[in-house]
Amino acid sequence: MRQSMFILVFLFALTFASKSKPDWANKDIRDYNDADLERLFEQWEEDEEPLPEDELPEHERKPPAMDMSNLDFTNPDSFLKQSKKGRTLMTFVSVLGNPTKEETEKITSLWQSSLQNSHIIADRFIIADDRAIFMFKDGAQAWEAKEFLIEQKQCKDVTIENQVYPGKYSKVHQEL
User: Fold this and answer.
1) What are the structural domain ranges in the chain?
2) Topology annotation, domain 82-175
3) pTM for the full predicted model
């Protein structure tokens, strides 16, 4: 009698437990559709703590506060520099003359090292025989790097936010 009572209670509990779950949760995992997987993911994420600000993807971070009182609106570069602070920014740099890809690699590597010695951190990517991208995690550093780069003998020009800055030794700069 006890065994039959135990089996009856067990079956009742098993039936009751399966009824408390939603229908999609009782499906075989192989039969889940996208909506079921999304609900499962939302349940998974419910109890997690939010990520700290510095670990969030860049598009989800709050932009840093800009101090409008210190901005010089007569100088558009200073305004752009402040607006790009804390944001990733790509700068295009062209090498003067007709260098090979290896020569461009060597020259831009020296520039990258010099920038890093000045605490300006940039990733460098060669995109053509005479052109490279410098990617700055803090976009405000791009303008400091620009000042250094346009002073270099092998620098043809630097492009930041579609604004071209000719190198000091380029023909364009000498014509100005």
Assistant:
1) 2-46, 82-175
2) Alpha-Beta Plaits (3.30.70)
3) 0.64
